[in-house]
Every structure is written in C-alpha cells, then in structure tokens.
Amino acid sequence: MKKILYIIITFISISCNQKSDPELEWMKNGTLHKKTITDWKIASDENKLATCADFMANLKKTDHQKYMSLKEMKYDAINLKTCIDEGTRNNNYADNMKIAEVAVLCYIFMKSE
Predict the structure, then answer these.
(1) Does residue 10 register a pLDDT over 50?
(2) Which residues have a Cβ under 8 Å from the Cβ of 87 and sit 6 or more positions away?
(3) For 41, what's the count of Cα atoms within 13 Å in the CB-facing half-sphere?
(4) Cα 103–Cα 107–Cα 108 angle in degrees, nearest 5
(5) What span, in angstroms and rounded, lies between the C-alpha atoms of 84 and 15?
(6) What's the pLDDT tens digit per position in 29-73?
(7) What gap in Å lies between CA 67 and CA 90, rounded to an integer?
(8) Is there a domain that residue 13 lies in?
(9) Domain assignment of residue 69, yes or no
(10) At what angle do helices 45-62 and 99-112 cross, to 10 degrees?
(11) Is 9 a member of any domain?
(12) Cα dihedral sign for 4, 10, 12, 14?
C-alpha cells in the first residue's frame, strides 16, 4: 500500500511541476474558430494568433502540405492574422461574416502572392 501511495504522490508531483513549452504557448487557446468578425474585433491578439495557427495548420493539411517548423507556422499565422485585421479594420460590411470564411479568403490571397 505504501508503494502505491508513493507512486501516486510522485506522479502528482511530477505532473504539477511540468512547465509548458514557451515555444508552443502562442498557439494555444484559440477560441474564435466559429465566431464572427465582430467577435474578432474585440478578441485579444493572443486569441487571434492561436486561432490563426489552427486555421493555417488545417488549411495546409487540406492542401496536402505540412509545416516543417513551428517558425514557419508562426510566420504564416501572423500573416493570416494581419490579413484578417487589415481586411476588416474600419469596415462594418464584414462584421457578420464568419472568421473562418475571411481566413480562407486571406489564405487564397496569401498563396497568390
């Protein structure tokens, strides 16, 4: 019984002391996938970037491609975020559009450059 208790305590201790990888933090907790541009406009930059990371990973996968590095993915996510921000800033016409729709348009635009 003491061995089992020791193993459980050790496991809990190790689990609680694990730190998250700072290189991956920028891509966590994106919550805007099914939201509208109105939601985008009031969201934090961190949430926008994390959502764009998810979009880019899925869009690349759809194109039968994959990222070779996190640096490459972050570069594309930043560009996607910038495209959505600039394309919807000071414009109310897109407020009711889904962010995912605008992301796809930006992705197509980014691929054509």
Answers:
(1) no
(2) 94, 102, 105, 106
(3) 16
(4) 120
(5) 38
(6) 899 999 999 999 999 999 999 999 999 999 999 999 999 999 999
(7) 33
(8) no
(9) yes
(10) 60
(11) no
(12) negative
What are the tens digits of pLDDT across the range 72-108? Answer: 999 999 999 999 999 999 889 999 999 999 999 999 9
Domain count, the chain: 1
Taking each continuous run of H as one helix and of E as one strand, the counts in the chain are: 5, 0
Domain containing residue 35? 21-112
CA nearest 26: which of 46, 52, 6, 54?
A: 46
Q: Residue 36: beta bridge partners?
A: 98
Contact 77, 27 (CB under 8 A): yes
- Whether 2 is covered by a domain: the verdict is no
Determine the Cα–Cα distance for residues 108 and 48; give it in Å rounded to an integer.
19
52 vs 76: CA distance, rounded Å: 8
pTM tops 0.85: no
